[in-house]
Amino acid sequence: MYHAKFQIWVGRLQQVFPVTHRYKCSATKAILSDPAIPTLDVAYITDPRNTHKIDKLIQSRKGKGDIHLVQKLWKEYNEETIEKMKSKKYEKFMLEACKIPNQAHSVLDSYGIEPKIVKYINDKRKFDFQPRDFADLCQKCDLLKTEFLGFLAGHKSYILKDSLAELEQALIQRTCDELLKKGFSLISVPDFLPSHVIEGCGMDIKAERGQVYTLDPSLHGDLCLSGTSEMAIAGFLSNQVLNVDELPLKLAAVSRCYRAEISSSFDERGIYRVHQFTKVEMFGVTKNDISQSEALLQEFVDIQSELSASYGIHCQLLDMPLHELGAPAYRKFDIEAWMPGRNMFGEISSSSNCTDFQARRLNIKYESGEDTYFCHTVNGTACAVPRMLIALLETFQNRYADTINIPEVLWPYMNYQKLLTPPVFPLKMRYIKSW
């Protein structure tokens, strides 16, 4: 009798938190006994002694979640005696509890609203002429198209041309080569993901000004466009038990990233903030040990710093304050590159330790002896192409703007081409007028 009631209860929960597809991977085995529903740290979030601390975390992260409502729902659930009503109250509790952000590193309490500058990378180039911005440089060299693309891909879209498109591929290939040398496994992932995978990674797809593109459910079911390959990799590992001997696991993927965000800021014009772009992403899995996930986070940050330094661009590494952390992040580092044409720093990479926040929501575990534990996950940008292109072109432009130097480390990936120049045979087009 109890087992039957439990199965009905689980079935209702799975309508709210659907079971993800159970992948079969070498080095992993699927979890077959447990439903793929979030397994939160209920003892922590329902303990009244933690209410003030959690409420402070919520307010510092743009007010996502309501710990008072969560604890109220938990109390109602425990006081309910009718089994049917009890399961419904638990569903409501879980829906609200999943909105509570991750805990944060204690050092962030002292930062206030400003990030801590950890270090600078390379010296800032001194110009003996007024540096131009990326859009002007690309126009002079005929390497980019952003105007009159509404008919093709809508607002905030772009087309890279000729040697600029080659530079994009060079950045991707070199980044992958460097990650492979550092023990990463390269995988290719889909761009379409079910909403519960995206939500399990900590993204709110129902937000009023959300960043997620959702496909028409009447035509395509429950699918969204992925904002980063981090989501697809996490979904790939969902419902898996990893072997402890294979941790830390380091994966990398190249993918298109889709962001519905809109900005009217003049500083974010051109391709600085766009609706789709190519990115190389790092994703790591460690044991449920904060020292190990923090060590992997540091490894990711070191890789980002090395890659940025190798291109000769001036950057600053930032330890981000609490209000800049998304819901999954325990700690977050950003690298900002100096963009001379804009006379500003712009973020080119980010890396976060999500501890067990994502693993608890996506059921990612590892086995050690007779027991299984939730993993810690770490993610980081290895190369976000558009902003890296902005930093490179604005840093290495020449006085007369019709040539741009290519960093030496990229020469082998550009057939030893050392300059970006206008195409020898430019494609001449004109638009047909419609009356």
Provide the residue-averaged pLDDT: 86
- How would a textbook summarize the main sheet? 8 strands, mixed
> N-to-C terminal Cα separation, in Å?
74 Å
Structural class label: alpha+beta
User: What is the count of β-strands?
Assistant: 18
State which percent range the strand residues make up: 15-25%
Fraction of residues in helices? 25-40%
Q: Reading side by side through the largest sheet, how are the strands ordered?
A: 2-11-12-13-16-10-9-5
Which stretches are low in confidence, meaning pLDDT under 50 for 5 or more residues running? 1-35
Written description of the protein model:
The protein has 435 residues and is α+β, with helices and mostly antiparallel strands. The protein has 13 helices and 18 strands. The protein has an eight-stranded mixed beta sheet. It has a four-stranded mixed beta sheet with strand order 1-8-14-15. Strand 12 and strand 13 form a beta hairpin. Helix 1 (2-16) runs parallel beside helix 5 (83-97). The longest helix has 21 residues, at 290-310. Mean pLDDT is 86; it is low at 1-35.
Mind sketching the topology for me?
Blueprint: H1 2-16, E1 28-30, H2 42-45, H3 51-60, H4 67-79, H5 83-97, E2 116-121, H6 134-141, E3 144-145, E4 159-160, H7 162-181, E5 185-187, E6 192-193, H8 195-200, H9 217-220, E7 224-225, H10 229-237, E8 240-243, E9 249-258, E10 276-286, H11 290-310, E11 315-319, E12 331-339, E13 344-353, H12 357-362, E14 364-368, E15 371-374, E16 376-384, H13 385-395, E17 404-405, E18 419-420
Parallel strand pairs: 5-9, 8-14
Antiparallel strand pairs: 1-8, 2-11, 3-4, 6-7, 9-10, 10-16, 11-12, 12-13, 13-16, 14-15, 17-18
Helix pairs in contact: 1-5, 4-5
